[in-house]
Amino acid sequence: MAERFQSFGLATPPAARAMLADDAIALLKGGQARQASLLAYGNGRSYGDSCQNQLGTVIDMRPLNRIRGFNAESGLLEADAGVLLADVIAHAAPHGFFPAVVPGTQFVTLGGAIANDVHGKNHHRRGTFGCHVESFTLLRSDGHSYRCSATDNPRLFRATIGGMGLTGLILSASIRLMRIPSLDIVEETTRFRDLREYFDLAEAADQANEYAVAWIDQLAGGRNSGRGLLFTGNHAEHGSHAAAPASAKFSVPLQPPFNVLSRPFLTAFNAAYRWKKGQAKAPRKVEYQGFFFPLDGVRDWNRLYGPKGLFQHQSVVPEEAARTIVPALLTAARQAGQGSFLTVLKRFGSIRSPALLSFPRTGYTLTLDFPNRGAATLALLGELDRMTIAAGGAVNPYKDARMSAATFVASFPEWPRLEALRDPAFMSDFWARTAGIVDPRRRDAEAAE
């Protein structure tokens, strides 16, 4: 149980209770679900506690894994909520289609991608995952199933996309895929000396390419501060249409008793990574899995952080503040003595999501991974929150395991609109910790039970 229904960050307690999707469906259809007792659990790739409900039961959605239909002319695919994006790719790629938006792992479920309104390396071109959702079927605790789209139950449609599983149980969904010439990617790598040079490159890179993302050497200080690599990519005109097996080449079979990703290791790794990747200056064809999902090649890589796990911090700040605040965030982490194994910087475009609560917005987003060192790490994360909010930005809720209610409210002032449409039978530890604290109705409901 602990391993199967754990958050990917491993820093929060695993689910205490779980049930299969079919049992939850029967419970909901019978109107027997208790208040705040349920939460859907996809494939456990959320870093924080938005996928946990310690006082209730999580619903294992993975058995709902059928692809129900695919139109090879239009790219419209219908599938159960438990289908993995890896399965969607394998099914659609031979017909010349690919998900318009993919996150950093293909091992997320369709329902999870919708519930978190995930984003990828091409937000400037395609927006979020929710922008490509045509419709879905939502089962609520009143026993009814609702077809939701931009025209059918539109309020539920907007609340469920990015709603972190709080509006009910997504049973199936229809999404529109994008046509591609091949799965392979023509990748180009550009070195930059510092963040000033990156920002000078970023907008032009977005305009010229489908995909763009930067890796930052977070530990480099002094004259090397902010150095990194900008990766851009486009689907190759000629290449493979056969999806590679969605399996890891390596694995971490056991969790070490300590954090393997120490500062000396990270320093050496960053230097080696920058040297190796920086050699490939000319465009080159690469396999899609290595470009989109590099960490999927190592199963259970999160175990390297040791038994205390990791915290991921992802922020977004407006364009006008980015040149000041992004260097300041990196400096704060470095001065706190915290090393980030994976530090990613990319530019969000202006395409709006249909979601009520969508994390991406116009600006720049910085992602940092830190080993959980207790109070020192929490203090740093709180300072990163403060700096982000002061700059007019937001912190990503589905990557979070500890943000305050004040940070959440400042990041998502529209949260009461989701609370108004939340199914009373559904709750997460994240929502109870943030919205539940600022909403007296939550406290009153708990007191009445």
TrEMBL record:
Gene3D superfamilies given in the database record: 3.30.465.10, Uridine Diphospho-n-acetylenolpyruvylglucosamine Reductase, domain 2 (3.30.43.10)
Pfam families xref list: FAD_binding_4 (PF01565)
Position of the signal peptide: none
Keywords recorded for this protein, A-Z: FAD, Flavoprotein, Oxidoreductase
PROSITE patterns named among the record's database cross-references: FAD_PCMH
UniProt xrefs under InterPro entries: FAD-bd_PCMH, FAD-bd_PCMH-like_sf, FAD-bd_PCMH_sub1, FAD-bd_PCMH_sub2, FAD-linked_Oxidoreductases_BP, Oxid_FAD_bind_N
Record carries keyword Oxidoreductase: yes
Top-level taxon of origin: Bacteria
GO molecular function: FAD binding; oxidoreductase activity
Keyword Flavoprotein appears in the UniProt entry: yes
Organism lineage: Bacteria, Pseudomonadati, Pseudomonadota, Alphaproteobacteria, Hyphomicrobiales
The protein, known as: FAD/FMN-dependent dehydrogenase
Family that this chain belongs to: Belongs to the oxygen-dependent FAD-linked oxidoreductase family.
